Structure formats: C-alpha cells, structure tokens
Amino acid sequence: MIRRFLANFFQGRNGFDQLAGAIWLVSIVFLLLSAFTKGLFSAVCNFVSLILIIWAFWRVCSKNIGKRSRENARFLEKTSGLRTKFRDFRTRFSMRKDYKFFTCPTCHTLLRVPRGKGKIQITCSKCGNRFPGKT
Ligand SMILES: [Zn+2]
Hints:
Blueprint: H1 2-10, H2 18-36, H3 39-61, H4 65-78, H5 80-94, E1 99-103, E2 110-114, E3 119-123, E4 130-134
Antiparallel strand pairs: 1-2, 3-4
Helix pairs in contact: 2-3
The structure holds zinc ion.
C-alpha cells in the first residue's frame, strides 16, 4: 500500500540523486553544528540546515526532470576531482599495509608499489616517467 503510494508519487519526479544526497549531507553538518553551538550562530546553522533539507526534498520531488538532471550532471562534473581524491584516499587506506602509494610528478597518476623493497626507481605506468622512491 505505502510502496504503491510511493511508486505513484515518484512517478515522473526527479527522485534521489547525487546532488540531493550532497545537499542532505551538508544539511546534516549544519544540524550538528547547530547542536554543538549556542546563540545566534546555532540559530543560523539550524536555519541553514532546514533550508537545505527543504531544497534536497524539493529536488527529489521536482517534476522538471530535465533541468534537475542537468544540475546533477554539472554538480558531478564540478566535484569529479574531489571524488577521485576521495576514492584514491579510500584505496590507499584499505591497502596501506601491503602497498605504498606514490603520485607521478609528471602526470599525477596514483601508483602502487609493494612495501618493504627499500629505495627503488618507480616507473609510471601511464607516462613511463621514472623517479626514485622509498618503500
Ligand atoms: Zn606519469
């Protein structure tokens, strides 16, 4: 019953996308800020959080899907560098025991080298540049 209602409701609407998710996350940050501060600053954070939640919800429910998906695409494009960095960081963290990571000074590709090899020459797999590194 509820499922059916939701399915009908979201029919022809934008739905939850990455931008809505990001707005929602930022609103949580403001909500936490407001919870741990006092006075005017806290009130402002609370207000900003509320506005952001309404904005995220409005996106999800919006029927102008074309425009919303363009906004989402633009958001993804602008944050692609940041998201790559975050992904790299996660990869490095999960493999930190077995590998050491280097960034190629020429093309900035992330390179993975097994640990415990001492001082070695690292060859970039993308551009072939060689540089020294300690593992
Ligand atoms: Zn390179």
